[in-house]
Amino acid sequence: MGNYCARITVHVFLLIVFPANSLFAESVPDLSEKESVSATNVSTTSTASKKVSLFQHASYPDAWTASQGSNRPILLYVSMSGCPHCVKMIDETYHAPMVEEMVSNSFETLHVNRHSHPTLVSNLKIKWYPTTVLVGANNKVLDVIEGYVDAKTFQKRLQLDLASSESSTQTR
Questions:
Q1: For the whole model, what pTM was predicted?
Q2: Fewest CB atoms less than 10 Å from the CB: which of 71, 96, 114, 121?
Q3: Burial (CB count within 10 angstroms: exposed 0-12, middle 13-18, buried 19+), residue 57
Q4: Interacting residues of 101 by C-beta distance below 8 A, sequence separation 6+
Q5: Any idea where the domains of the chain sit in the sequence?
Q6: What are phi and psi of 16, to 5 degrees?
Q7: CB-based contacts of 128: which residues, under 8 Å, 6+ apart?
Q8: In what side-by-side order are the strands of the sheet with 108-113?
Q9: Helices H / strands E in the chain, number of each
Q10: ∠ Cα 145 96 163 (to 5°)
Q11: Terminus-to-terminus CA distance in the chain, angstroms?
Q12: Segments of the chain assigned E as strands
């Protein structure tokens, strides 16, 4: 399994103590370069053989363009081949009805594989798999979720990140 296996980390405490936009207030590296960031397995099949098009975009530039039009954050799911935690995250977390609905309705989504997109993975400094990166419409990293996370915890985390992204884009 080595260094690439997922480690389970709990960031809930950090999110409560430090708002997500202050903890991860770094800009996303310029990902508009011409690196074609095609999605891996856009239609994902769960173990129940239920075909779902959860990941909408074929490239980061496509997701970014859609995000600018919809004012929704980008959810970038990064996995690697042969990673059991990555498969478990898709099957058990992303395909949980409560998470699937939230992700589909609230984010511009993209799924990439670390081996086919090494530049993107390197620019985002991703070291653990799976990793979910949330990028706001203002091109700031809202959150980085490393490792497998169960559906209930993941949904709560996404809700906090959405609230944070909405409050940072509102004006008085």
A1: 0.69
A2: 71
A3: buried
A4: none
A5: 2-168
A6: -75, -40
A7: 4, 6, 7, 9, 146, 147
A8: 108-113, 74-79, 131-135, 141-146
A9: 7, 6
A10: 50
A11: 50
A12: 44-45, 51-52, 74-79, 108-113, 131-135, 141-146
CA dihedral 132, 54, 158, 74 (to 10 degrees): 60
- Summarised one tens digit per residue, pLDDT across range 74-84 is 999 999 999 99
- Which CATH fold would you assign to the domain 2-168? Glutaredoxin (3.40.30)
How far apart CA 150 and CA 94 sit, in angstroms, is: 9
Q: Are 88 and 46 within 8 A, CB to CB? A: no
- Between β-strands 74-79 and 131-135, what pairing exists: parallel, antiparallel or unpaired? antiparallel
CA distances, 120 to each of 59, 117, 134 (Å): 11, 6, 14
The residue assigned the tokens 């074929």 is 58
